[in-house]
Specification:
single chain, alpha+beta, Jelly Rolls, eight-stranded antiparallel sheet, 10 helices, globular
C-alpha cells in the first residue's frame, strides 16, 4: 500500500521564508519555515489524505524520521547521545514532566543523522577542529588584535595537556565572564587570520546574529564546512554540530534527544553536554556523489535508516526497498508505482509512504527523489 504524506512546516525562528517556498514553487511565507517532518514521531506525525496521521498506520514504530530542513539563521550548537546514554538518561529523568524546561532526554533513542543539501551552498559547523589548527587560529588572532583576558585564557586552555578542548568548552559555557566572552568575540570581529579567512567570515556572521553568546567561542573551535548540492555529511553520536544556512534533506533515527552547546536561548545543561560530547578533534568526511549513478546511496554506519537519491530522466527506475519506506520529491514531476500497479503522484515537497507489503517501487517521470528506508548492516 502506498499513502501520500504531507505536513505543515514548523516555524522555528531560524527557518527561512523563501527556501521551502521556492522549492515548492509558491510565494514566500509570512513566518519562517524551518522543517517539514515526514515520519510518525509523536512530536509531529505526517498527515494522511483521510485526516489521520501516519502513526495511526505505523503505531509509531518507524525507526527513522525524514525531514526537509531550511535554515536562514544558524541552529543551536548541539550533540546527540549514544543509544546507551539515551536509555540511561531517559530513565534518570523519568520523574520529570515531558515538557519540563530542564529535561534533556525526550525518549530513549540515539539520534545519528545525515544531511544532503538541496541548495547550491549549505554551511555547517561539524565537529571540533584539529587542535594544532585551532592553536594557530588563536595565535593569529592574538597577534592581530589587542591582548585580552578572554583570548589569553582560551589560548592557555588550548595549550593544556589533558583534554584541552573539553576544558575550553567547560570554560566557555560555564565559567567565562561576559567580559571574557566579549573579548573573544571582539577578536573574531577585529582579528586577521589568513589561513582561516572563510571561517572567520562565517563566525563573524554567527556572532552578529547571537550577540554575547558564549556559543560563539564553541563555534570558533569547530570545523566550518561548506557542502554543495548533492553532497552529504553523516553526524554520529557525540559530535558537536550546527547547521548554519541552506536547504537540505535530513534523515535521522526517530528521536528528539538534543543536548545544546550555545547559540540558543534554550536550556543548556553544561555538565550533561560534557558527559555526552566526544572531544576527539578532526575533519568530518564529506560524502560526494558519483555523477554517473542514477541511484546514489549514501553510506551510513547505522541500522536505523538508509537514504538514496534518485535522478529521473524520463525512464522508469526500479528500486528494491526494505519497507516501510518513503519517497520524497524534491524537483520535477514524478510518480511512484507499487504492487497494485497504480501510479501515485508525488508533488515536490511531499512524500509517499510504502508499507511493509511493498518491496519494489517503480519511480517514473523527470526530477529528483529521495528514498528513505530502514538500514541494514
Amino acid at each position: 500500500m502506498l499513502l501520500s504524506l504531507t505536513n505543515a512546516p514548523r516555524d522555528y525562528a531560524w527557518g527561512s521564508k523563501t527556501l521551502l517556498a521556492a522549492l515548492e514553487g509558491r510565494v514566500p511565507a509570512e513566518l519562517p519555515e524551518a522543517e517539514v517532518w515526514f515520519g510518525d514521531h509523536a512530536g509531529d506525525p505526517a498527515d494522511l489524505p483521510d485526516g489521520r496521521t501516519l502513526d495511526a498506520v505505523t503505531g509509531g514504530e518507524l525507526p527513522f524520521l525524514l525531514k526537509l530542513l531550511a535554515a536562514e539563521d544558524p541552529l543551536s550548537i548541539q550533540v546527540h547521545p549514544t543509544k546507551a546514554q539515551a536509555v540511561e538518561g531517559f530513565a534518570r529523568e523519568a520523574d520529570l514532566a515531558a515538557d519540563a524546561p530542564g529535561r534533556n532526554y525526550r525518549d530513549d533513542n540515539h539520534k545519528p543523522e545525515l544531511i544532503v543539501p538541496l541548495s547550491e551552498r549549505f554551511e555547517a559547523l561539524c565537529g571540533l577542529r584539529e587542535l594544532a589548527a585551532s592553536r594557530r587560529l588563536l595565535a593569529e588572532l592574538r597577534s592581530s588584535t589587542e591582548e585580552s583576558a578572554g583570548l589569553s585564557r582560551l589560548s592557555a586552555l588550548l595549550d593544556g595537556e589533558k583534554d584541552p578542548l573539553r576544558a575550553a568548552l567547560q570554560w566557555a559555557l560555564a565559567e567565562a565572564t561576559p567580559a571574557e566572552v566579549a573579548d573573544v568575540i571582539d577578536a573574531v570581529h577585529g582579528g586577521v587570520a589568513a589561513e582561516f579567512a572563510q571561517t572567520l567570515v562565517a563566525i563573524r556572521e554567527i556572532a552578529a546574529r547571537n550577540p554575547g553568546d558564549p556559543g560563539v567561542i564553541v563555534a570558533l573551535l569547530m570545523n566550518f564546512v561548506v557542502l554543495r548540492r548533492g553532497e552529504a555529511v553523516f553526524l554520529r553520536a557525540g559530535l558537536l554540530h550546527a547547521y548554519v544556512s541552506g536547504l537540505g534533506v535530513e534523515i535521522m533515527a526517530a528521536s528528539d534527544n538534543v543536548l545544546r552547546g550555545g547559540l540558543t536561548p534554550k536550556h543548556i545543561d553544561v555538565a550533561e553536554l560534557l558527559t555526552i560530547v566526544d572531544t576527539t578533534p578532526g575533519d568530518v568526511e564529506i560524502i560526494r556523489p558519483d555523477p554517473g549513478l542514477t541511484v546514489q546511496r549514501f553510506p551510513v554506519p547505522v541500522d536505523d535508516f538508509a537514504l538514496s537519491r534518485v535522478v529521473l530522466s524520463g525512464e522508469d527506475v526500479v528500486v528494491d526497498v526494505q519497507a516501510p519506506a518513503m519517497v520524497l520529491a524534491t524537483s520535477g514531476d514524478v510518480r511512484v508505482i507499487g504492487a497494485d500497479a497504480l501510479a501515485l503522484p508525488v508533488p515536490v515537497g511531499t512524500a509517499v509512504f510504502a508499507d511493509p507489503a511493498e518491496s519494489t517501487l517503480v519511480l517514473s517521470g523527470v526530477g529528483e527523489v529521495f528514498v528513505a528506508e530502514p538500514g541494514s548492516h
